[in-house]
Amino acid sequence: MEGAGVNIAFYVLSILTLVAAGGVMVSRNLLHAVLFLIVAFIGVAGFFVLLSAEFIAMAQIVIYVGAIAVLILFAIVLTPRSVRDNSETAMVGPAILLGVALATVFLFVIHDTGWMTGAGDPGLSASDLGRALLSTWVLPFEIASVLLTAALVGAIMLVRSEAEESEDVPDADA
Amino acid sequence: MDNLATDHWYDFRDLANLSRVILEGIDKVAPYELAYIVAPIIGFVAAFVIFVLPSQLFVGVYGERRIIGRIQSRRGPNRVGPFGLLQPVADALKLLQKEALTPKVADRTLMWAAPVFFVAPAVLLFAVIPFGPRMVFADVPAGLIFFIAVSGLPVLAAFIAGWSSNNKYSLYGAMRIVAMSVSYEVPLVLMLLCVVVFTNTMSLPGIVWFQKDVDLWLIFMQPLAFVVYFIAVSAELNRTPTDIAEAESEIVAGYLTEYSGMKWGLFYGMDIGYALAASAFAATIFLGGWSMWGLEQWVPPWVIFIAKTHLFYMVFIWTRGTLPRLRIDQLMGFAWKFLLPLAVVNLFLVSLERLWWSESDLGGGIVFVIAAINVPVSAVAVYLWARFLGYKPERVPTRPRLAREAGGYVPLEEPVIGGGK
Lengths: 174, 421
Fold this sequence. Notes:
CATH superfamily of the largest domain in chain A: NADH-ubiquinone/plastoquinone oxidoreductase chain 6, subunit NuoJ
Largest sheet of chain A: none
Helix content of chain A: over 70%
Structural class of chain B: mainly alpha
Oligomer: heterodimer
Radius of gyration of chain B: 25 Å
Order of helices and strands of chain B: HHHHHHHHHHHHHHH
Largest sheet of chain B: none
């Protein structure tokens, strides 16, 4: 995509995403932080649309906004006193160090990658991705599925107790 | 693109002509970027005038109340205007005048923002719906995923509404709506995956063209997908058989408890908007969209499409007036134990059929064979699975669980017979 509209959209999305990401950091209320995070996710999805990767943009919204953000919301709502008394901690130093280290790694990766800048089909449509996942990357794809299934079974095993298990067995006299 | 409307601006069978002529006129006198701004405005105004406003007010608010009144043996609104037709307008005026209260302990910003977040996706959803062969606002290649992605956003808005109200019942409603939508999203998406596997495309106009080319609607080729989609979307929309998030007999009004005035009105109006969007989506995917076995040459395709949408919406109203509300554990169990296995079985069946189709040399006629297989298989699968899972109805419950766990009924003292004055 090109044209003045795309440039305007790029800067609007950049400001939106950066402000939202800043809001995640400075917000004292954890629930506000999650909502800022959702806005940042939506901004990133907008960048994918600008890069002509509609399917990845939609997947970004389905997975990050629809599933992961909801999961984080649940975690926060179930945490007592998560919305207040969040003052400075001693962990701020290590956190800044970690952030700088991560940013450095990312900058090196971005600098060293040979980005495709010319025109042409980037191969990001849904059928391209599906074909790649089931031919070139079929082993990592299958391993990821097995990992997710194992995580699912493990989570169910963790939260089940003996009492609940006996409750589900139908009684002889029922 | 044969047998469709001509390119003249006055050809009302394709309203895209009109907007195209206006845009070309703007292009001659103004810079190119202006079209970016004008196109959404024209599209929005056109969609609003021919579809959203009449549907929302006169089918959604008025028609729904009249039909439910008929089902419940009462008259419904019949005082304002002829046949009570102006009742929605009166309601809107009343809501605008009412004070929108905000509790002192609420999170004011979020409580103000939640209705806004709730409204925006409803407008976005109509962007990818094809009203006619060329009357689609944004022909996104992954339109189906777009619809799933955007229809997941109002749940977050409802959660924000419930949490920011700082009310026990609001929070219950918010948790319920999130839990329910997470559960029902799974069979819903699996069913749409069946549709994508079968039609080999994710673009909504593409799905309509597929159904037009084989002269058969997907509701006949994928009856199980249609049934599961209908149930799951009815749960997602939070309409009455499944509206446990605002069940007024259990948790006051759920996440809407603290809302009043037009803030509440936005939630109410957009509930109808989402129901219309889901109906339009179902009409596109399962009922052939704007195609009608050749009738679209004589009747404007957008009229056919809107008629199908409202037909589907009538079924929503019908179920709403007929069925009692389910309990939350029944509703969740229904999603995971009933709908999900059916969805997985259907996905397997559809993949096999698709493979057969691409290997065989029967051509397009094979869809009739597939339809003839799928309709009885779906009916039998639903019947048997319901029989297998179903609770046998007990007319007189012999041993209720509460009494069993409490050790049965123990009278506290000897009842006084005939002595109480």
